[in-house]
Amino acid sequence: MLRAVVTYGSQGPEVLLVAAEGEEGYSEYTFADCAIIPDGESPSTKIEGLEECDEGPSPIMPEAKEFFWGAGSFVLFALLMRFFLYPRLRRSMDAREAAIQEAHASAEAERDAAKGEVSAYESALAEVRAEAAARIDAARATVEAERTTRLAEANEAISARRAAAVADVDAAHDAARAQVGTAVATVASRAVELATGRAPDPNSVSRVVDELMNSGVAQ
Amino acid sequence: MEAFTILAQEADKAAAAASSAGFAYGLAAIGPGIGIGYLVGKSVEAMARQPEAAGMVRTTMFLGIAFTEALALIGFVVFILIGL
Amino acid sequence: MLALEFPPINEILRWQDVFPSFNKIAIIAVAAALIGTLIFLIAGNADGSKAPRGVRNLAEAIVEFIEGQIIMPTMGRDGLGWTPFLLSIFSFIYLCNVPGIIPIIQMPATARMAIPLFLSLLVWIVFIGVGFKHQGLGYLKSSLFPPGVPAALYILVTPIEFISTFLVRPFSLTVRLFANMLAGHILLVTFALLTESLVQGGNIALVPVGILPFFMLVFLTAFEVLVAFLQAYIFTILAAVYIGGAAHPEH
């Protein structure tokens, strides 16, 4: 709280507001025990033991000392930045960027080289594969041809054997037939001899037997 | 008695100054409030429609906010000036 | 009844001089310049040929942020020469803003008029200088008499262009930065005072209620981190826009 001291001077009433010592809320501010003089008032009498209050700065008006300290430090900072700090940082940033670019470029080149190698390898691989395929095909053709010839040979052998067997069978058949014919003719001529008492003509007997046997086979 | 009258007048002046300062700032905040709301809303809409242009929209939005906000801040300065 | 007494604004901005004419704001400004120098010095000394780590990574991220997010969208490739200037503006403002949320310091140097005023006057001088350097007296013509306007309208347009280009730009740059930081500072003070008076007010029932403004205080502190970055970014991007516009009027 402020205490008002009103005095009557030559120009009418004059009001001084006095902050008292030990007042609550004022102890933390350094300007206790001082006189606050309202705007436009000029007291003719000073109060005993009281200085005029330092009201604190106006919130709006710029203060010269702050202005010049701020200006000085900023100008120094800006000059340092312009001529020393920023160029150094920029240089090393640019150097790094260039190094990275270079590394990228060399990596790109290496990748291209590697790609070339890969394609060369792949073409070689394709060649080898083609050759292998050709060889396999050739081998397969050879094997096929051999197989065909062997098969043909085997078939031929089989048919030859079959023909031989058939011939054997026919021969055996014929031989058996001839034997049977002879035997039948002998039996028949013997029977006729027994029956008639004279030996029949062997030629006619064999002819009759042949006829009978043939008709028997035909039946 | 005269001294008390003067003190009372001073107090009245201070109270009037305080309330008019409050009014001044309150009135000064209406326009920029609407303006910034509209501006940011439109910017968000633009960014949602074209996310690839978001950087440009954001920069322009901050510029617009800065210009709009200046009015409210002048109101704030007036508030301090009257309140003193 | 709760006795909450909010101090006048000039009291929360009042700092005693450490030695004559050197107060807390000056300390923060000098420290910001020193820390910025230190960061870029350490970054410059670090081995640049490997992948960046630690401080160097930070410095390179800031440089790339300035180049990619601020210069390229506003000035294009021609503006890359402005990187050191914009880089120092950005770093300096950020390092002046951020003490606003660092405990014990708790004061953004940009919450006072002086530093924002100086920086925006500097940007003002720079962009007018760039305009005259690139276009000669044609800069005044292109900025005060924008092409494509009927001749009769110049009576109206020219004063507006003059005010908006040469007066409002530095003013709004200053006020935007200053008022944002001061408002943040006042908000933090408000919630800190509210918490303190609720917890230490002598009323046991009010102590748990004091947690609410305390959470608000924590939340606002986090918000101020964002604001500190955003205001540095906005100041820098506006500087870039003004300089780019002065260099190439057709943009």
Helix content of chain C: 55-70%
Mean pLDDT of chain B: 86
Distance between the termini of chain C: 60 Å
In terms of quaternary structure, what is this?
Answer: heterotrimer
- The overall strand count of chain C is 0
Class by alpha and beta content of chain C = mainly alpha
Helix and strand sequence of chain B: HH
Q: Which spans of chain C of ≥5 residues are poorly predicted at pLDDT below 50?
A: none
| Backbone CA Rg of chain C | 22 Å
CATH-defined architecture of the domain at 37-84 in chain B = Up-down Bundle
How many helical stretches of chain C?
8
Query: What would CATH call the homologous superfamily of the domain at 37-84 in chain B?
Result: F1F0 ATP synthase subunit C
Largest sheet composition of chain B: none
Shape of chain C: globular
Task: Encode the helix/strand succession of chain C as letters.
Answer: HHHHHHHH
- The CATH topology of the domain at 37-84 in chain B is F1FO ATP Synthase
Coarse morphology of chain B: rod-shaped
Overview of this structure, please?
- The complex is a heterotrimer of chains A (219), B (84) and C (251).
- Chain A contains two helices and four strands.
- Chain A is of the alpha+beta class.
- A four-stranded mixed sheet of chain A has the order 1-2-3-4, with no helix packed on it.
- In chain A, helix 1 (64-196) packs antiparallel against helix 2.
- The relative contact order of chain A is 0.03.
- In chain B, 93% of the residues lie in helices and 0% in strands.
- Chain B is rod-shaped and about 75 Å long.
- Chain C has one domain.
- The termini of chain C are far apart.
- In chain C, 69% of the residues lie in helices and 0% in strands.
- Chain C has helices spanning 9-12, 24-45, 54-74, 83-97, 114-135, 138-144, 154-199, 211-247.
- Chains in contact: A-B, A-C, B-C.
- The A-C interface holds A 25, 29-30, 54-67, 69-71, 73-74, 76-78, 80-82, 85-93, 95-96, 99 and C 5, 7-11, 13-14, 16-17, 21-23, 25-26, 29-30, 32-34, 36-37, 40-41, 43-44, 48-49, 59-60, 63, 83-85, 87-89, 91-92, 96, 109, 112-115, 117-119, 122, 182.
List the helices and strands and how they pair.
The complex is a heterotrimer of chains A (219), B (84) and C (251).
Chain A lengths: L1 E8 L2 E8 L14 E3 L14 E2 L11 H133 L5 H17 L1
Parallel strand pairs in A: 3-4
Antiparallel strand pairs in A: 1-2, 2-3
Helix pairs in contact in A: 1-2
Chain B lengths: L1 H48 L4 H30 L1
Chain C lengths: L8 H4 L11 H22 L8 H21 L8 H15 L16 H22 L2 H7 L9 H46 L11 H37 L4
Helix pairs in contact in C: 2-3, 2-4, 3-4, 4-8, 5-7, 5-8, 7-8
